[in-house]
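@channel anyone free to eyeball this complex?
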Amino acid sequence: MEWITLFNKEMLEHWRNFKWIWVPLVLILLAIMDPITTYYLPVILENVGGLPEGAMFEIPELLPVEALMMSLAQLSSLGVLVIVLMSMGTIAGERKSGVAELILVKPIRYLNYITAKWSALLLIVWVSLTLALSTSWYYINLLFGELSFTDLLLTIFFYGLWFSFVITLVIFFSVISRSPGLVAAFTIITTIAMSIITSLFGKHLTWSPSNMSGHIEYAIVSQELTKDLMMTGLITLILIGILIVGAQQIFIRKEQIN
Amino acid sequence: MELLNQIDWAVIAPIIVIDLILIIVALVDLFRRGETNGPKWIWLLVILLISLLGPVVYFIFGRRQQ
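replying in thread with the prediction:
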């Protein structure tokens, strides 16, 4: 009951901020931009000119799965940045402005407060990601060739876990810092550090969440649900769980001190 | 003109529509809002002149935290 109230408050807030409009649209744009530009690259090069007479440009044909990976690459860089900036203020902003204290004066369980905010953000992110990848999938089928619907579902599900992990990081750091800017910085630094560590110790960290895109590509190419992909998904889920419980514990201590 | 014919508008149209929606929503928010984070007319220019990125930057940074 209490949780639903908090959740509805978050939803209302996200509507008022137009997040329900711009987050899906921006992710859709990010997802379709690269496949479309690549498709039209020959036309663009031809018309922009500057090529010496008779210069031949061999642009390799892109496989559908490669085009999909272009979408994921954009979502992994700019997409992550957008969802981090979009969510950085939800707890940190409320704690800074004192709204959090007003809410938590009432006997509300900290876990409810955190998970209600977390779920509202996850809902936006999952809906946006589904729309973005579906649009990209539609274009890929139109421009590059067939990519099955199952491949799309697999991509949405496992890539959604990676986005959920990023949102969970934001929530976790929101509990540690009151400044939305710092929360965003910590989250971005963590994801970058994770991908550096993963590429340095690649052999031992096959199931690192940073490897999600790679495993998705491999699963689509080999047309089977690989063990690596499933394990990466599982590890990501476990990390999300640990972060949420950790965030709750830290939050309880911090608010009690105040 | 040749360039315009080479492009399949069914492919490009959605991008333009999305861009327009973003601009309109950002403008609606800008005009309804009492105060923004910085002068309003600058945000107006940002939203109108910087394609795609302008409205997004406004949504993230333009609005004052309550």
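from a first look: The two ends of chain B are 50 Å apart (CA to CA).
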